[in-house]
Design a protein that fits this description.
Length: 207
């Protein structure tokens, strides 16, 4: 999984990246003035949007290429602090990205959590451990916004993977489904090429 993730960034195979950020985040996010965790953040513009809402934003990303691209492409000056994970801290904004293995990240607790592309990037045998680690980093009443995908895996396979509602609620029983829509047109081209006609993007939130 680790090598595959790094290879995708090195080869530019990042079809999940949204250059304008995620519209569902802007529609459904409610927290401000909180410490927000964004796992497997890549170079998402969502970090900037969350920070503009008054939040202190922390991303975690395995690929150094993605981390540096975020700061360079957005012309954000930063400094680095070495540690178990290298911390890239924006000089004049409340944004930090830790580069390294998410399972080695321990700088909690956080008041809010945003997962748009992390859970669906992971194969089934890793997802439970990922969620358990995420929970260990959050306050008990943390705000959560999680975006999952549902599609027919007999036609196409991930990543990003289809994660059914039953699995989401097994991990996060407190979540409520607040929205869903077909996003096949914005999904990876390989899905359409395989003949997939629908890919449902599902938005889950707490509270």
């Amino acid at each position: 999984m680790t090598e595959s993730w790094l290879e995708r960034w090195q080869e530019g195979r990042t079809g999940w990246h949204e250059s304008e950020g995620n519209a569902s985040l802007r529609k459904h996010w409610t927290a401000s003035g909180t410490r927000v965790l964004v796992p497997l953040c890549g170079k998402t513009q969502d970090l900037i949007w969350l920070e503009r809402q008054g939040n202190d934003v922390t991303g975690v990303e395995l690929s150094e290429l993605a981390v540096r691209a975020f700061f360079d492409e957005n012309e954000i000056a930063y400094s680095c602090v070495e540690g178990a994970l290298t911390a890239y801290r924006a000089n004049d904004r409340a944004i930090t990205i830790y580069c390294g293995d998410y399972f080695s990240f321990s700088d909690g607790p956080f008041d809010a959590y945003y997962d748009r592309g992390a859970l669906v990037a992971l194969p089934a045998d890793i997802r439970r451990s990922y969620v358990e680690h995420s929970r260990s980093l959050l306050n008990a009443d943390a705000t959560k916004l999680i975006i999952s995908l549902e599609y027919d895996e007999s036609i196409a396979t991930g990543p990003p993977f289809s994660v059914p509602a039953s699995e989401i609620l097994e991990y996060w029983s407190e979540l409520c489904r607040v929205d869903a829509y077909d996003d096949i047109e914005n999904g990876p081209p390989k899905f359409r090429d395989a003949g997939l006609a629908m890919m449902l993007e599902v938005i889950w939130r707490y509270p």
